[in-house]
Amino acid sequence: MNEPADDIEVMPANDAAESITAERPNVGASAEAEANTSNVPDSPTFSVSTSDDPLAALAASGPSRRQRRRRQRVFLLAILAIVAISAVALSTGAIDMKANPNTLAIRPSFLFEQMVRDAQLSNHPTFQVSEFEVDDEMMEMLRGVDCLETVIIDRGKVTDASVAVLASLPNLQHLRLRESPITDLGLSALAESRSLIQLNLPQAKCTKAGVAELAKLPQLRMLRLGAPGLGNDVTRELERMPRLRAIHLIGVPVTNSGLKTLAGLPHLESLYLDDAAVTEAGWMWLFENHPELHIHINQRHHDRDPQSHTHHD
Fold first, then answer.
1. Which residues contact 227 (CB under 8 A, 6 or more apart)?
2. Closest by Cα among 213, 273, 263 to 237
3. Among residues 241, 154, 161, which one has the least CA distance to residue 197?
4. C-beta separation of 215 from 221 below 8 A
5. pLDDT in tens, 210-267
6. Side-chain-side CA neighbours of residue 8 (13 Å)
7. Minimal CA–CA distance to 110: which of 128, 92, 98, 97?
8. pTM to 2 decimals?
């Protein structure tokens, strides 16, 4: 069964004339037929209402041709909008097609830029990235974001090239760079900061010469540092920073003599040593002579530590 037409079609005038002419009966033949059928009773006449036909009612209540065309146009415009947005994102580098061939990934540089803009607009003092890797090119975007007081980069490899940008932030107080191989050159540039209080470089590549540069930081109070090139002699450089209140050395083979050097800092309150070379006798000396210090040995309290307490996650 063919679907009922939605609209009534009007036959053109010329076609109608031709149809009437073609179908006009012969007058004589018509009279003869009428005489022969004069005795035949009239046939009953039936009228069909479209309201009684469910298919006709359904057709009448369905969308019109104009409505279907309008829906097609709206659908086409939506597809074109999606294509346009994707093209803009690809051209600006916001979408990384190489990250995963089966998915579209937002480029880290685009995310970083958005975070910088948000920090500027909201004047937010904390900037932290832990979801994606950061590089030196991204770090350049932080130049001039003077509202920042805390910068924490937990993924990526920020090198010495970015340290000057960080040192130029006038209100920077807390800096943490994980996975970043900062060398003596970077520490020398960082020493230009006038506001830095807390420095955390757990994967640095510096030597004691670079650590010595940190003595130029007038506000430095907390230092967390790990570098395979550091030895017990770095404690002599830290001795020149009497304002330090907290020290955490990672993978530095501090000996008994180095422990005594660090314990002599006048304002020291907390000392954490991971993988140190201190003997049991050295620890006993520390607990007896400096019970006021908060000590962690390989991230845990010593059994004899008078400051021992339970840490909660």
1. 201, 203, 204, 205, 206, 207, 251, 252
2. 213
3. 241
4. no
5. 999 999 999 999 999 999 999 999 999 999 999 999 999 999 999 999 999 999 999 9
6. 1
7. 92
8. 0.68
Strands of the 150-153 sheet, one edge to the other: 126-129, 150-153, 174-177, 198-201, 222-226, 246-250, 270-274, 294-297
Average pLDDT over all residues of the chain: 81
Judging by DSSP bridges, how do beta strands 95-100 and 103-106 pair with one another?
A: antiparallel
- Report yes or no: 290 and 309 within 8 Å, Cβ to Cβ: no
Residue the block writes with tokens 């640095």: 204
Structure tokens that stand for 248 in this block: 């955490």
How many residues are listed for the chain in this entry? 313
Range list of β-strands (E), the chain: 95-100, 103-106, 126-129, 150-153, 174-177, 198-201, 222-226, 246-250, 270-274, 294-297
- Read off the amino acid at residue 42: D
The one-letter amino acid code at 216 reads K
